[in-house]
Amino acid sequence: MGKNENIEITRILDILKSKKLVILCILMISILIGFVYSYFCVVPEYKATSTLLLIPNSTTNGQVVATQDLAVSTDLTVNKGLIETYRKIGENSKVLKQVINNLGLDMTEEELLKQMKVSIKKETYVIEVAVTNKDARKSHGNCKRI
Predict the structure, then answer these.
(1) Contact in structure between 102 and 144 (CB atoms under 8 Å)
(2) Which one of 46, 89, 123, 135 is least enclosed by Cβ atoms within 10 Å?
(3) What is the per-residue pLDDT across 56-85, written as a single tens digit (0 to 9) for each?
């Protein structure tokens, strides 16, 4: 570092010291604006997810069952169309009505369907059901195991 660089750094520090009141005011105003925005404008959303793994069950003669437990199987030969069928069943009006009744939710089937997303993980036998809501209790429900 040469002498000129030290002079420049010293000069910059002197300018910052002389303007410290302005810098402090800008910092405080920014913090205040951020607090007001996050407290009054941003509405938190809660998300609950459940993952189902579809595997052949040897006790049901090759029928497919849904399970939340992890399973290791080398013979996952479930038809991809069947997995899509399970996804559609999850969005069915009768299923949504039963979920609303079981969890005691105060909403319509259409409202639940708007908050719910049923997706299939690409190239897997995994179905993920996610519900997003502004009320933590409604998004998580009673979290009963299927």
Answers:
(1) yes
(2) 123
(3) 555 445 455 555 444 444 344 445 677 778
Cβ atoms 95, 89 nearer than 8 A: yes
b or e along 65-93 (b: 16 or more beta carbons within 10 Å of the residue's beta carbon)?
eeeeeeeeeeeeebeeeebeebeeebeee
Residue with tokens 């003669």: 61
Rg of the chain's alpha carbons, rounded to an integer? 28
Q: What is the DSSP letter of 101?
A: H
Lowest-confidence segment of 39-48, 61-70, 127-136 by average pLDDT = 61-70
Q: What is the pTM of this model?
A: 0.53
